[in-house]
Design a protein that fits this description.
Layout lengths: L6 H9 L7 H10 L4 H10 L17 H9 L6 E3 L5 E4 L1 H6 L15
Antiparallel strand pairs: 1-2
Helix pairs in contact: 2-3
Length: about 110
């Protein structure tokens, strides 16, 4: 009721039926369920919509100290993630364990 959708429709959504929920309806559900931004993004992704990420010129470069730390951790594999779990940087042992990481497109380079 708080989201403005019927009980039947909400039940179908929970059951994973192909009802093609719009982003407006998903936003209303997220507000009604008091979801935070990450939970809302997960709901949108589950419904099959692309995530609305802020438009940026790219990921901010990581500090040199963090890059040196990745090198110092060798021979152990290590990586740095951004808040949405996208890989930002990794060391050579990690690339050796997961060679495809260097070839993945940026939108698919995510730990989840």
């Amino acid at each position: 009721m708080l989201a403005g959708v019927s009980v039947s429709w909400y039940t179908w959504l929970e059951q994973g039926r192909p009802i093609n929920a719009s982003l407006d309806v998903l936003d209303a559900l997220a507000r009604a369920l008091q979801l935070d931004a990450v939970e809302r993004d997960h709901l949108v992704a589950l419904a099959g919509h692309p995530l609305r990420r802020p438009v940026a010129s790219g990921v901010e470069p990581i500090p040199d100290a963090l890059r040196r730390l990745l090198g110092a951790l060798e021979p152990a594999p290590a990586y740095v993630l951004e808040p949405l779990w996208d890989f930002v940087e990794w060391n050579r042992p990690f690339a050796t364990l997961f060679p495809a990481i260097a070839e993945l497109p940026a939108e698919n380079c995510n730990l989840v």
